[in-house]
Amino acid sequence: MAEHIHKPTKFPNRIFEAFQGGEDPAAISRVAHETAHALLSRVRADPDPGVVERLVAYTDENGIDAVAELWSRATPRSLPGALWRIYLLRMLIRQDPTGTSFLFQRGVEVARTIDPVIAGAAHPTGPDEIIVLADAILRGIYTGDFAVALDRAAAFCRVMSAGATSLADDADAAEPDRASELTRRGLRFTEMAAELTACARLWRSDSLD
User: Its domain of life (predicted)?
Assistant: First the structure.
């Protein structure tokens, strides 16, 4: 962990966009994969509760930029790519638990799948419950079935996408700009869900590098 503590970094919705840089892509990819495999294998081999909780809360003290530097530019269907997306989701939830829980609850109301059950949030899902869910999903990658944690995160994203799409439909006539923003968010959550589902499938086949 970083020797100096930084304030948590706040990002707007464009946090979903890829980070860009001028470093050697091959070197970045190598470091991303090596650190992801080393961290995950070490913690899962001996999941000390104190270490796990520090990893779960790491971005609260250091900001998500430290994690982004390691993993944000990894390909979506890779171990560092999966870890990045889990940390990103947790940060997005914790930055706006009220707004996130509102979207999620709407998604639960309109969902026609078992995704709300797979995500595993308490019902009804308020700000406190959505934070608990975010921590539980992240904790699961270190202490539980890694593929199940990814599936829960993917289900969460699909519920969020359903909520955003439903709200976009409501706002379409009176607030077209807001409707467009919600539609974009819904699409990005759908994309992230597909990426996380693919990672879960690769993990189960021992192919997630």
Answer: Bacteria
